[in-house]
């Protein structure tokens, strides 16, 4: 997959996450997408399960937003470094860092493997 196409796919994916647009996000994934957040102990397999899982994330964190820091691209996968911000249900504004590893198949994201520092989130003023 050409690197520019990968960059465009990741940009659409990130826009979908920041607008919490499930249709836009799911359009970036293969039907058998695997979502795994290793630090949170969360995983889902297959488009319907991943969609439901993401809907639950957005319901719990309605102002969750991501700011990309770096994107590393190869022909078969990309690694995205990001910083997230969100408001905890207790009212604290939190920020944490993370990395997504995205293997590709047929021009789409086949896996989203997430590694974060959410367990040590910074409290914002």
Count up the domains.
1
Tally of strands: 7
- In N-to-C order, the SSE pattern is HHEEHEEEEE
Alpha carbon gap, first and last residue: 42 Å
In terms of structural class, how would the helical and strand content be classed? alpha+beta
Give Rg in angstroms: 14 Å
* Residue runs with pLDDT of under 50 for 5 or more positions: none
Note the overall shape.
globular
Outline of this structure?
This protein is 29% helix and 46% strand.
Verbal overview:
The protein is globular and about 40 Å long. Strands 1, 2, 3, 4, 5, 6 and 7 form a seven-stranded mixed beta sheet that branches. The chain has helices at residues 3-19, 22-26, 47-60; strands at 29-37, 42-45, 65-73, 77-87, 93-105, 108-116, 122-123. It has three helices and seven strands. By secondary structure, the chain is α+β, with helices and mostly antiparallel strands. A hairpin with a 4-residue loop joins β1 (29-37) and β2.
Sequence-ordered SSE layout with sheet pairings:
Blueprint: H1 3-19, H2 22-26, E1 29-37, E2 42-45, H3 47-60, E3 65-73, E4 77-87, E5 93-105, E6 108-116, E7 122-123
Parallel strand pairs: 1-6
Antiparallel strand pairs: 1-2, 3-4, 4-5, 5-6, 5-7
What features would you highlight for this structure?
7 strands, 7-stranded mixed sheet, alpha+beta, 125 residues, Nuclear Transport Factor 2, Chain: A, 46% strand
